[in-house]
Amino acid sequence: MNIRRANEKDIPRLIELLEQVLQIHADIRPDIFIPGTTKYTEDELKEMLKDDTKPVYVAADENDVCLGYAFCQLKQQPFSNNMVPFTSLFIDDLCVDAKTRGQHVGESLFEYVKGEAKRLGCYEVTLNVWAGNTSAEKFYEKMGLKTKERQMEYIL
């Protein structure tokens, strides 16, 4: 397996994987997510792949077929004037093809992202997980992540 920055030839495969992760979210929160859609369009992906502040990493097999991805964003802190300034690498989305889950693709991607965060001088790696996505929560806890903050909602 080779982990690298995504490029335009990966876009069709990224869209397939985005559909898979969207369906997971739609199953958990059908009140928010629209099945059969994706988070990003092909044009948005083309622009994103050019943006070094939003790196997209892919895990590719020996035929250079994308098995999973990690969409990331460099974020500057603080959120307010009472916080120390630092840079975070935020994992906006991480997905492994349903057919290859359990083969350590996600672990390899996450470890690669951690290495990139260190290389880029980041203080931390962060992400959000939807309540109800217990498999993702277990995976990230296994990878050593701890809850930093909780966002709560009251649906009207």
Automatic annotation (TrEMBL):
<keyword id="KW-0012">Acyltransferase</keyword>
<protein>
    <recommendedName>
        <fullName>N-acetyltransferase domain-containing protein</fullName>
    </recommendedName>
</protein>
<dbReference type="Pfam" id="PF00583">
    <property type="entry name" value="Acetyltransf_1"/>
</dbReference>
<dbReference type="InterPro" id="IPR016181">
    <property type="entry name" value="Acyl_CoA_acyltransferase"/>
</dbReference>
<dbReference type="InterPro" id="IPR051016">
    <property type="entry name" value="Diverse_Substrate_AcTransf"/>
</dbReference>
<feature type="domain" description="N-acetyltransferase">
    <location>
        <begin position="1"/>
        <end position="156"/>
    </location>
</feature>
<dbReference type="InterPro" id="IPR000182">
    <property type="entry name" value="GNAT_dom"/>
</dbReference>
<keyword id="KW-0808">Transferase</keyword>
<dbReference type="GO" id="GO:0008080">
    <property type="term" value="F:N-acetyltransferase activity"/>
</dbReference>
